[in-house]
Amino acid sequence: MKKLTFIFLCFCFISCEENLNIDIPTDTSKLSITSYLKADDYFNGQHSYVYLSNSISALESNDNFEYTDSIPVINNATVSIYETNALQENVASYLLEFDYDCYCYINTDMSPKQNTTYRLEVEADGYPNVYAIDKVPAKPKYEITNFELIGKLDKKSYDGELSQFNLVIDDDPNTENYYQLKIFIVNTSGAKERTCSFSVSDPSFLNSLNSTDSEGSYTGRSAYFTDELFNGTSKSFFIQHFKPKGIFDHFYIELRALSRDLYEFNETRREESATSNNPLFVSEPIFLHSNIENGYGIFGGKSASNKAYIPTYFPNNGWMSY
Amino acid sequence: MNLFRKIVVLFIITQSCFSQELHKISGYVLDFESGTTLIGANLVDNNSGRGAISNIDGYYSLYVDEGTTFVVCSFIGYSMDTLFISVKNDIDYNFELKINSLNIGEVTVNDERLNIESLRTSTISVSKEEIKEIPQLLGEMDIIKAIQLLPGIQSGNEGASGFYVRGGGPDQNLILFDGAPIYNSSHLLGFFSTFNESAVNSVQIIKGGFPAEYGGRLSSILNITGRNGNMKEWKVNGGIGVISGSLCVEGPLKKDTTSVILSARRTWIDQVSKPIIKFAQNSFNFGDLDADGNYYFYDLNFKLFHKISASDQISFSFYSGSDNFSGLVTEETNGVGSDYNWDYYGSSNYGLLWGNIISSLRWRHLFSDRLFLNTSIIYSRYSFENKILSTSQTTEEYFDLTSSNWSSLYDYSYQSGIEDVGVKFNFIYDFSLDHQFNFGASYTKHHFSPSFIDLTTDWGEYTDTTMTFSNQKTPDELFIYFEDQYSITDRLSSNLGLHYSVYHENSRLYHSLQPRISFRYLLNDNSSLKFSYATMQQNIHLLTNSSYGLPNDIWVPATRDVPPQRSQQLVCGYNVSFNENKYETSIELYYKRMQDLITYSEGSNILGTNFASWEDRIDLGGLGEAQGIELFFKKNKGALTGWIGYTLSKSIRQFKGVNLGREYPYKFDRPHDLSIVSSYKINKAFDISLTWVYGSGNSITLPRQQYLIVSQYGIQEYYEYGEKNSYRLQPYHRLDFGLNYRKLKDWGEQTWTMSIYNVYNRRNPFFIYFQDSANNNIEFIEAKQVSLFPIIPTLRYAFKF
After folding, report:
1. Which of residues B242 and A248 earns the better pLDDT score?
2. Residue where one domain finishes, among candidates A136, A157, A192
3. Which among B40, B175, B310, B370 is least surrounded, fewest beta carbons within 10 Å?
4. A204 and A308: one domain?
5. A-chain residues within 8 Å CB-CB of B281?
6. pLDDT digit string (tens) for B437-454?
7. For residue B759, what pLDDT is reported?
8. Residues 707..736 of B with a Cβ closer than 8 Å to A: which?
9. Does residue A214 share a domain with residue A314?
């Protein structure tokens, strides 16, 4: 990017520059939230948490963010999460506390449930109260078929294709489903876990969150897709899976279901990061998707179904729920 | 007898009645010295007061009463020619006008009375002489920049050659050169237009009330006619300016029968810019980077004209123009690691190449003194290519005397383009004194290549080649039209037309019937009221989100999922001339609605984050609305000539997926736009000109809040933007000065032109950006405004013999 900037400046060789007094309308500072609820996972700061920070004027220095130690988070807010029923009545409530290990708000008694709606409420001095609602989606159902192991898990120097298989999703026809697919490879003894690259050729993978070619072929480590093209059917994806260098003993597939808000939040984040600081090919500003009322950020639900291939223990079919 | 038969009989009776008393004088208006045709010359029959204008082929026809009369023919910069004649039959007569502009102390810019009488609304012809007198950036005469000074027509960013007509986008202007469309009309990132003045004969822009023969664009028709070569003798002219030189050779291959003209222009900015790039390199801190760059553009025009007979003419016109930018950035660095030394060498080659090739073959045929046919076969191609080739080599030498090397490769090529082949037939039939029928047809085969990417990467461990296509499209576009210019009474005339277009792409058919209606009512000899209504359909779109005038916009066709854009425009006008046509004023009100506009989705651009087709990166179904009032005051005669144009306007856009679905100001919405253009002829040798422009600042979107997304993976900063395009940059204004000194020499004529662009060195906004700053250890973010052109004096030398 530095090189592109240089070229651009060469274009503007006779340009002049001056400081400008811009009167940007001053908006009230608001709260910014990053919160995920993962089904059947304790709200302990690992996969489920609430991070809280404040917004400042676009022309203010970063010093004006509120800091806890040297981390720009707010630690004195009242953060509550309510489990609600279909009538949006509170059926359970959890008061979250600030944890200085993760610098986020947690409650280890809470474990979000799939197919359940939650409501977040945050009060902090000097800021408008914010709230958000999202539903933790049901865990996705899928099977692995036609599995073929091609490479060796424990061959250190090998980094080619490890396996091929069909991932068959049983899609729920009654909901719009948003998926994320990742494959992890693990060395249990070395406590090492890495993500694997994989390829899928399917139009469902042709979207703005994935780097795909026009044929719908995706290669990467984290793929997003929706059920728009196969809603309510049993959809099979042929997957080629690649191994990084190193010694491993098993791998597992994690298929996540995301809430719509979380999917759109990820989508706009991806677009923003891809187009920021690009002086030559400027795009229009990106408005990051948010479901936080009176604030910024995301309160997003997700769930995951994992299937592991562990040849040591299951040499015949090798697959188990994880 | 049914109604149709009654009407036909009535027409025949009417025609026969008139034919007993009226005769037609027709022919061409020519330059006496060169024999080239003059477009837009005025002809007036003294007895009846009827008038006519020579058309785009220099052809005219005028009805006169039987008996003795005289017809006056006039044209800007030429002496009037008068035909005294006793009329008993239809007559063919060619007027040959002599140049007079250097022999008198005052000039006549135009006979604007015909603007009062003309049926057309929102149509302005700008003569080459007028354009020549306008001071220009770096002394380069620029047609597009000249028309930006007219009311209702706005420039985009500083210096840019694109133009925006009545709230429309830059893609909504049909730019024709000898009948062939030009898709990219600018050089040097939009700072100069592709039109070499020595190859141009006439310029006309239509902003509303479109004649039925035109279609395919929503906002304007810019009709540029290339010059025919001199039919009498060989001539050479040329010029040398700060950034470019041009040369034009023309003459008869066979006197009064066949002529040829060849003109060429090339920049030498590649030579001039080298030290400037070095200066830029030294002025900015780029660490270990070293750079070299090269840029040039050229234009080549060729035209062959041949008179086959008195009733047949044929011409072949060819244009080729291209911009070529290349750059090389190298980086060489080294360092010390924990147990090794490392050396790094990287190089990146950048290339941008874009250009047009167009040609047209035209045949003009007079079937009779009432029926005229103009047949054109056209070809137009625009292509854009962007290349980046980066390589690097890293060497690590460990302290145990072992070493390792690795290299990387990034080879990227992006191409897009459009290619048209088409044929047009335009008939003019003088049915009677009161009715002139214009009708014809056009067929164009488009070939779109919206985007093609070839990417090869080699990062040592991983090699990949990706070939990506947005599917090529080859739509067909056909239209037929008919219009009747009908003189209802002596004061009231109408132009009623229909334009029917059919567009076919991949089994999807779009067709539309587009009425074109205009009325003119003469209040008296010096003033008229006009009204027009036109619907238009545009079957192509331009995807753009760069405001720098870079050529990375792509033309895309309407497809099954992306419908054509449409518009409806109403215009009401009042024209008045006074003091024997010395002054002319017009007021026009317009209202335009546009549907099915497209734009990039928020955050998308041409080099998006993925290789998805352009159709997946756009928002559809956009609405646009533009309205305004245009005031135009022009002084046509005397030593001081010029005009004042003012536009008060509003232009908005609305897309479902943009700005939360709310309407917002168009990026180039400019409520106030004022141009004052003046030229003063001091004597035969000297004339001076001043131009002052003022415009409201462009609309941009600024961030209002910054906030953080914090997670265990890190902290990222984001901006919250307010309403889209809710902030206006500072107003734009600028004064330009020009001085021409002409001198006749034994060998010909020479002209020295001095121009000063931006006389009072106004720092007009080009763009703004934000930068972290500190004052007394207090950090803050500062807005910086970048202005492009300071005061720029230039000198240009031109000659002809």
Report:
1. A248
2. A136
3. B310
4. yes
5. 6, 10
6. 999 999 999 998 876 667
7. 87
8. 707-712, 715-722, 724, 727
9. yes
DSSP letter string, B353-421:
EEEEEEEEEEEEEESSSSEEEEEEEEEEEEEEEEEEEEEEEEEEEETTS-EEEEEEEEEEEEEEEEEEE
Distance CA B745, CA B754 (A): 20
User: Is the predicted pLDDT of residue A5 greater than 70, yes or no?
Assistant: no
Instruction: Please tell me the distance from the alpha carbon of residue B299 to that of residue B263, in angstroms, as a whole number.
Output: 8
What's the start-to-end Cα distance of chain B, in Å? 67
Distances (CA, A) of A192 to A33, A152, A155: 31, 17, 15
Q: What is the pLDDT of residues A171-195, one digit of tens each?
A: 999 889 999 999 999 988 877 888 9
Domain regions of chain B by residue span? 23-101, 115-800
Listed as ranges, residues in chain B with pLDDT below 50 are 1, 3-4, 7-20, 102-112, 461, 546-549, 608-611
- Residue B716: its chain A contacts at CB < 8 A? 269, 273
- Quote the minimal CA–CA distance from B295 to chain A in Å: 10
Closest Cα in chain B to A19? B784
Residue B160: predicted pLDDT: 60
The C-alpha atoms of residue B717 and residue A277 are separated, in whole angstroms, by 13
Shortest Cα distance from B244 to chain A (angstroms)? 17
Q: Specify the higher pLDDT residue, B636 or A227.
A: A227
| B475's tokens | 């739509």
CB atoms within 10 A of CB B178: 26
Q: Locate the chain B residue with the closest alpha carbon to A30.
A: B707
Asked if A7 and B327 come within 8 Å (Cβ–Cβ), the reply is yes
Q: Do B707 and A297 lie within an 8 Å CB cutoff?
A: yes
Q: Is pLDDT larger for residue A35 or for residue A218? A: A35
Has residue A15 got a pLDDT over 90? Answer: no
Name the closest residue on chain A to residue B552, using Cα atoms. A281
Give contacts of B286 with chain A, Cβ < 8 Å: 2, 6
Kindly report, residue by residue over A161-175, the tens digit of the pLDDT. Answer: 999 999 999 999 988
Closest residue on chain A to B718 (Cα): A288
DSSP structure string for A203-268: GGG-STTS-B-TT-EEEES-EEEESTTTTTSEEEEEEEEE--SS--SEEEEEEEEE-HHHHHHHHH
> What local confidence, expressed as pLDDT, does residue B17 receive?
43
Question: Residue A154 maps to which CATH number?
Answer: 2.60.40
Together in a domain, A130 and A221 = no
**Which residue in B179, B196, B202 sits closest to B39, CA to CA?**
B202
Residues of chain B positioned with their CB less than 8 A from the CB of A268:
602-603
3-state secondary structure of B746: coil
Q: Which are the contacts of B19, defined by CB distance < 8 A and separation ≥ 6? A: none
Q: Which of A85, A109, A136 is the last residue of a domain?
A: A136
pLDDT digits (tens, 9 = 90+) for A43-71: 999 889 999 999 998 888 888 899 999 88
B704 and A9 in contact by Cβ < 8 A?
Answer: no
What span, in angstroms and rounded, lies between the C-alpha atoms of B688 and B679?
A: 6
pLDDT at B104: 42
Q: Which of A7, A50, A228 is the mutation pick for testing B, counting most B CBs within 10 A?
A: A7
ipTM over 0.85: yes
Q: Structurally, what CATH architecture does the domain formed by B115-800 represent? A: Beta Barrel (2.40)
**Pairing status of strand B81-87 against strand B51-53:** unpaired
- For tokens 């400008």, name the residue: A20
Question: What is residue A283's predicted lDDT score, i.e. its pLDDT?
Answer: 53
- CATH class of the structural domain B23-101: mainly beta
- A100 with A230, same domain: the answer is no
Nearest to A56 among B327, B658, B705 (CB): B705
* pLDDT score for A18: 63
- How does pLDDT run across B461-514, given as a tens digit for each residue? 455 555 555 667 889 999 999 999 898 888 899 999 999 999 998 888 999 999
Interface contact A56-B617, CB threshold 8 A: no
